[in-house]
Write a structure and sequence with these properties.
alpha/beta; seven-stranded mixed β-sheet; binds zinc ion
Length: about 270
């Protein structure tokens, strides 16, 4: 059985020719969920041969446009392509008003049931469960309310369940490592290289070294950096800076498929 994430977009703030805005399709043993939905995500799903109608859940980290502006369009496309299966959207408080307003102003009446779960809690808690996986949400440190997600497969046989975490967008906070302790794959933002530490602090984003420090403190199996600022044409600097702190580091790229493998903690 397979557990992997496919990167739709790995850039921060604005789409470029090299990188689309945030979005990842996670496959947990056949169950498909979307993490974030920046502008262009539905086109990227087609480009990456991801079946739009197979999505069962959408988790939005926060309502900044580069993580959210693709969602109204995706929901409308699912409707226009004949969806009848319900779809669940999990996002910070305010998403219901935003979607209702978009749908009303565009006279879009969805033919499928849209279940919206709004988050406003300040701890880590389970927010969704299905026969294939459970999803927990925990607060991040950003300029607007933002949540990280923990996706854990349901226990199968004698194997322990594999788990991945997604943290985007966030500044550094010492509690972060506790939320993602021991996950097999940590996908976390790394908007800036280390020379932009002051800007990262001001805008509540992470540098490469800070992201790697979270991975090391949490004892995760593998680290996947994403959400790179468009100012970096060459992202090699992120790999160099992060892998000096956490060796098992990978850089996200649009279209990359990254497995969530069993791992031993490597502190
Ligand atoms: Zn962002
Ligand atoms: Zn943001």
């Amino acid at each position: 059985m397979n557990f992997y994430t496919t990167v739709m977009g790995s850039g921060a703030a604005v789409p470029t020719l090299m990188r689309h805005c945030s979005g990842q399709v996670v496959n947990v043993n056949g169950y498909r969920l979307l993490l974030d939905c920046g502008e262009g995500t539905q086109q990227q799903m087609r480009a990456c041969r991801q079946k739009l109608q197979s999505l069962q859940l959408v988790c939005i980290s926060h309502l900044h446009g580069d993580h959210f502006f693709g969602l109204p369009g995706l929901l409308a496309t699912l409707h226009l392509c004949g969806r009848t299966q319900p779809l669940t959207v999990i996002a910070p408080q305010g998403v219901r008003l935003a979607l209702d307003t978009m749908m009303a102003l565009s006279s879009t009446q969805l033919d499928y049931e849209l279940c919206v779960i709004e988050l406003s809690h300040s701890d880590k808690r389970q927010v969704f469960t299905s026969p294939r996986c459970t999803v927990s949400a925990f607060p991040l440190w950003h300029s607007v309310p933002a949540y990280g997600y923990l996706i854990e497969e349901q226990p199968r046989g004698r194997s322990r369940p594999r788990c991945m975490a997604y943290c985007c967008d966030t500044g550094y906070h010492e509690a972060l490592a506790g939320y993602v302790q021991g996950v097999d794959l940590l996908c976390i933002e790394s908007t800036f290289a280390d020379d932009m530490q002051a800007v990262a602090d001001e805008k509540r984003h992470l540098t490469a070294s800070q992201a790697a420090s979270v991975a090391r403190q949490a004892g995760v199996g593998a680290l996947l950096l994403t959400h790179f600022s468009a100012r970096y044409r060459d992202t090699e600097v992120f790999e160099r800076q992060a892998s000096a702190i956490f060796p098992n580091t990978m850089l996200a790229a649009d279209g990359l498929v990254c497995p969530v493998n069993y791992s031993e903690p490597c502190l």
